[in-house]
Design goal:
The protein contains one helix and five strands, in the order E-E-E-E-E-H. The chain is of the alpha+beta class and about 70 residues long. The protein has a five-stranded antiparallel β-sheet with strand order 3-2-1-4-5, covered by helices on one side. A hairpin with a 2-residue loop joins strand 1 and strand 2.
Length: about 70
């Protein structure tokens, strides 16, 4: 099983995006999403440093709500 983290793109330079989630920023590779049109403020699922899927803001919010519930249990 793997865990993907929803993150919001804050800046893009080439195939690298600066992404943020819950106040934490990371550099994320966009290499695996070369065919996808990504812009600042888009949400992506990040796994081991790579963006692997574009998602809606609602999907990102739902994922974080579930993660928060798991952490509280």
């Amino acid at each position: 099983m793997c865990l993907g983290i929803p993150m919001q793109i804050k800046s893009i330079e080439g195939y690298t995006a600066r992404c943020e989630a819950k106040g934490v920023e990371r550099d994320v590779s966009l290499f695996m999403m070369q065919e996808e049109s990504l812009v600042i403020d888009d949400f992506v699922v990040v796994h081991v440093g790579y963006a692997i899927q574009k998602i809606s803001p609602e999907e990102a919010q739902t994922a974080w709500e579930l993660y928060d519930q798991m952490l509280q249990a």
